[in-house]
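Appendix C reproduces, verbatim, an entry submitted by the partner laboratory led by Prof. M.T., so that reviewers can inspect both the input and the predicted structure.
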Amino acid sequence: MIKRIAISLIGIFFLLQLFPVDRSTASEEAPVLASEPVLTILRKSCYDCHSDQTKWPLYSYVFPISLFLKNHIEEGKEELNFSKWEKLSPKQKATAADSIIEEIEERNMPLFSYTLIHNEAKLSDKEIQILKDWAEKINASYEEEP
């Protein structure tokens, strides 16, 4: 009986692999306009979850990981999508910049679960400072507007 249940579960697991999730990427509508150091940091540490340029790793093709990642990425892009950054109003950019500063200072971003597998995405103190300087410039330019 246990053997049949195990074989059935394994069969169901393999059948579920036949139903892939949509991993397509869109072109960037209005990508971030920033210096190359800022863009390099954003690409390596943020873009997989916060842009339309997600690089899907091999493990993202395995159910149920595929569903978890798809939902996680959709939530990340809903919160902040760097592929649409330049469509944001100055006020929205300033608000997002404040959130970015807070998240990276508290080391909430990139997520620990992401950096476990993608060690290169961890932010150094220097990279955090580069992003903070960039975000502070965004805030300063918003405050200067009439």
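The CA atoms of residues 50 and 80 lie 6 Å apart. Additional entries are available on request from the coordinating office.
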